[in-house]
Amino acid sequence: MNDTHGETGKGWYGFDLDGTLAKYDGWKGIAHIGEPVKPMVELMKRMHDEGKVVKVMTARVAPRKLEDGTVGEQYVTVPDGEKGTARNYAHQFINDWCHFNLGFIPEIVYQKDALMLELYDDRVKQVVPNEGWLVEDIAMSKRQRTETTVVKREFIDVRWWERVNCFLLGMMVMAAIVVAIQMYVSATTTVPEAERKLHDAACDYMQSKINERVEGLLK
């Protein structure tokens, strides 16, 4: 996400609590915060160590809508029997969680301001600045085009290989047919020719013997 709102001062980076920094599988009370999500926790700690301002942004500390429809402080009773505002107790539990899992206690807010540079949140949908396009839609479109290109390339490669195989098979069949024809021709022409020559030689031999016999009788 580009810095489109923090040019006028030092910006800060927001991290959602439930579902981002801490595992969330349903609301279980103001005192319950899930186990840390290690990749996000490590990222927040690393950014803090680099000198960046990081904050936890969570609706847990937002003003509550009361039964009469107005927005104000909601009072709750925690397990130890004490009664106080929901926001104060939320701050207390989040501070304890952060101190234990992050090693420091960041500022806790419930809304962004003009200095927020980035927000890490499991529910956020990033929009291209001044364009109105969802980044996830652009990524999906690119992924679909890539997958389509890969499928087409694989299809073309398969068709090309099939054609090569068909060509080679056809050449082998044609070669086999040519060899068979040559063998047939050799069988039908070469052998009779040899027999004819042998017959002629035998006839010449017999004729020469007959001539010699006749000449002997005439003498």
Q: How are the SSEs ordered, and which strands pair?
A:
Layout: E1 12-16, H1 38-49, E2 53-57, E3 64-65, E4 71-72, E5 75-77, E6 83-85, H2 86-101, E7 107-109, E8 116-120, H3 135-218
Parallel strand pairs: 1-2, 1-8, 2-7
Antiparallel strand pairs: 3-4, 5-6
What does this structure look like?
- This protein is an alpha/beta fold and 219 residues long.
- The protein has helices at residues 38-49, 86-101, 135-218, and strands at 12-16, 53-57, 64-65, 71-72, 75-77, 83-85, 107-109, 116-120.
- The longest helix has 84 residues, at 135-218.
- The radius of gyration is 47 Å and the shape is rod-shaped.
- The model has no long low-confidence stretch (mean pLDDT 79).
Q: Strand order of the main beta sheet, please?
A: 7-2-1-8
H/E series, N to C?
A: EHEEEEEHEEH
Overall geometric form: rod-shaped
Structural class: alpha/beta
Report the radius of gyration as a whole number of Å: 47 Å
| Helix share, percent | 40-55%
Mean pLDDT across all amino acids: 79
Based on the model shown, name its key terms:
8 strands; 51% helix; alpha/beta; 2 domains; four-stranded parallel sheet; Rossmann fold
Summarize the structure.
This protein has 219 residues and is α/β, with parallel strands linked by helices. The protein is 51% helix and 13% strand. It has two domains: 113 residues, 3-Layer(aba) Sandwich (Rossmann fold), CATH 3.40.50; 85 residues.
